[in-house]
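quick one, 359 residues, struct below
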Amino acid sequence: MSETSPKLRAVLDGIPTYKPGKPAAAGGPVAYKLSSNENPYPPLPGVLEGVIAAAGNFNRYPDMACTGLMNELANRFGVPVSHIATGTGSVGVAQSLLQATSGPGDEVIYAWRSFEAYPIITRISGATAVEVPLTSGDVHDLDAMAEAITERTRLIFVCNPNNPTGTAVRRAELERFLDRVPSDVLVVLDEAYREFVRDEEVPDGIELYRSRPNVTVLRTFSKAYGLAGLRVGFAVAHEPVAAALRKTAVPFGVSQLAQDAAVASLRAEDELLGRVGSLVCERKRVYEALVKQGWTVPDTQANFVWMRLGERTAAFAAACEKAGVVVRPFPGEGLRVTIGEDEANDIFLHAAEAFRKEL
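---
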């Protein structure tokens, strides 16, 4: 009997493995998880009740067309239902975008460092990743990204606000960039953290999409809405792109529990906005405390802060964990810290202050 293994695609050899945020350790000090940009609040009013009701029918397939959710989103954002596609989180929709646009010989442009799923899903599609370094201020270098466009470019990701740096591109520079992109190249505005934006100069991608057929906007229910464990996201795009996304989506990928929870969350937006407002206030407190301690921290429009620490990254992450909070290190570069419960933020700030005094 042959001992050879089944043949797998060679492209898999160079694909990095996605690294989720480390969970809080059990058995140590009081531990908080600030490593995954999760919402620390429980489900919004009505959401848990809707999920429990839907759970009684999970012997049945979900509505594959996500009819209720699609209609709710169309009403919420003032777009045609035919311009919406759903998926298993915004990353699931992003992967469908790659399947619909890019393959061997094609190029996909994105900033780096940015969302770590981009290189994974790009290489899975067989396309070539073109990574454009951030500016010295950890912001997208849109001029360099525009200059990187070639006749092979099929898709460009702009993560706004950017994960993991929290920095955001403003309206004038983004519109200038979009004007430079050929009309047959798809620009994906990944706005997973849109609800946390308070800079009025950072545009709402859905307003930009309306007059630009080559712009697609990604949103998710995982962050502000607090449905990270249910995996539901969506895209707003002009009909040819949205139709392609629905065609490439995994059948029945979004569970009925997720659909019903997302609809209930959209209907509880007043409560949502209050919670987001509280997190933004905590973000401001954490940011200002870090600056006062002497750290250089870029302005953030997301629900996390970024600290570029270079070779000190691992040591700082270990100090935080010892103090009782788990953060997300990117070895040799920096670390991302989610804004969590007030007590968790206090523990992190105390750890940061103690670490700085030892430098």
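The longest strand covers residues 153-159.
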